[in-house]
Amino acid sequence: MDQLSNVFAALADPTRRAILARLAEGEATVNELAEPFPISLQAVSKHLKVLERAGLITRGRAAQWRPCHLEAGPLRDVAEWMRLYRRFWDERYQRLDDYLRELRAEDTAKEKHDERED
Question: On the CB side of 96, how many CA atoms lie within 13 Å of its CA?
Fold first, then answer.
């Protein structure tokens, strides 16, 4: 599996996204990361391994304390990939805006025409 696919697979799980959101605030231990979740430490560790394989986190080695740290580089790659599709949607929204302007202009013209007939 390529790196971008690994990142998307890791981001597919809401628990992993929540872990990343917490790590965006700063380093944390496995115990600290596990606190808000009703799952075992072992389950949290499995989530961390997925995030680590995707390159989204690293784990330090400070004696007994192994803090997890967010690695934002892969998220930048996702944003870069998504930028291609943003242009697509921007063009679609622009066409929708143009269409809505046409409809409003037609409604305004019809209202003026109806007023003249009264």
Answer: 6
For residue 77, tell me if it sits in a domain: no
Residues 60 and 8 reside in one and the same domain: yes
55 neighbors 73 (Cβ within 8 angstroms): yes
Q: Is there a single domain that holds both residue 20 and residue 41?
A: yes
CA of 56: how far to CAs of 30, 50, 74, 98, in Å? 15, 9, 6, 41
- pTM summary value: 0.72
Same domain, 66 and 89: no
Structural domain harbouring 16: 3-71
pLDDT tens-place values along the chain, 118 residues long: 799 999 999 999 999 999 999 999 999 999 999 999 999 999 999 999 999 999 999 998 766 678 999 999 999 999 999 988 888 889 999 999 999 999 999 888 888 877 777 6
Q: Which of 27, 9, 22 is CA-nearest to residue 74?
A: 9
Do 20 and 44 lie in one domain? The reply is yes
